[in-house]
Amino acid sequence: MKIKKHIPNLLTLGNLFCGTIAAIFAVESNFTGAALFVVIGILFDFLDGFVARLLKVSGDLGTQLDSLADMVTSGVVPGIVMFKLIQYDLFDSPNSFEDSILDISLIGLILTLGACYRLAKFNLDTRQTDSFIGLPTPAMCLFVISLPLIQEYSEIEFVQNLISNNYFLIGVTLVLTYLMNAELPLFSLKFKDSSFKKNWIIYLFLVISLTLILLINYLSIPIIITLYIVLSIFKNLIPKI
């Protein structure tokens, strides 16, 4: 039995491990801890595919493990975070689950359902080898986990009030759930060569993203993901550019 074929799967399990810890932090309303382990989990998610291709050991088992791990890290965790955000805005403090089992905070868990549906479709969709159709679950997750961090660390009152508005949070939940499962082609961030002409949209996206991160910190995350979607739509409308 070759050890190298198990290396990508171990990295995938690392993603699952981090996602599980992030879920515990999210339940305890420790959003900084949840975000940290989500980011580490997403890094494992990137590395497992990269290492699998490098070692040429890709297989069906790895594909299934990858989606199962993503379901926790990028599906369950953002659902819990959104649940908690809506619950906070309802009661100004964390409420017990028994008291909130019938309130609107459960709408946040629609993100988890949407992520599950997307991941199941992704495993069967042969069109998404070099690009994505619909918003990837890690992108959705990063968008959601950035919201409590923006609320805590941003000094912009309008942004804080917006994230404290349940109409906004429910709207974000429904829009992100739709985008994950929409027939919307999104450009790949993989470089096939170093040509600027063929990769101009990737270079543009990366330059703007880096600038936003340096200027506005956590607030840049939802803006970057929105920019990714807008640029993809633009590229789809004018494919020859």
SSE blueprint and pairings:
Layout: H1 7-27, H2 31-55, H3 60-91, H4 97-100, H5 110-124, E1 132-133, H6 137-153, H7 157-163, H8 166-181, E2 185-186, H9 196-216, H10 220-237
Antiparallel strand pairs: 1-2
Work out the oligomeric state of the chains in this entry: single chain
Helix content: over 70%
SS element count, helices = 10
Estimated structural class:
mainly alpha
N to C succession of SSEs? HHHHHEHHHEHH
Shape descriptor reads globular
Give the strand order, joined by hyphens, for the main sheet: 1-2
State which percent range the strand residues make up: under 5%
Give the distance, in angstroms, between the N- and C-terminal Cα atoms: 49 Å
Please outline the major beta sheet. 2 strands, antiparallel
- Count every beta strand, where a strand is a DSSP E run of 2 or more residues: 2
Mean pLDDT: 88
Give the radius of gyration.
Answer: 18 Å
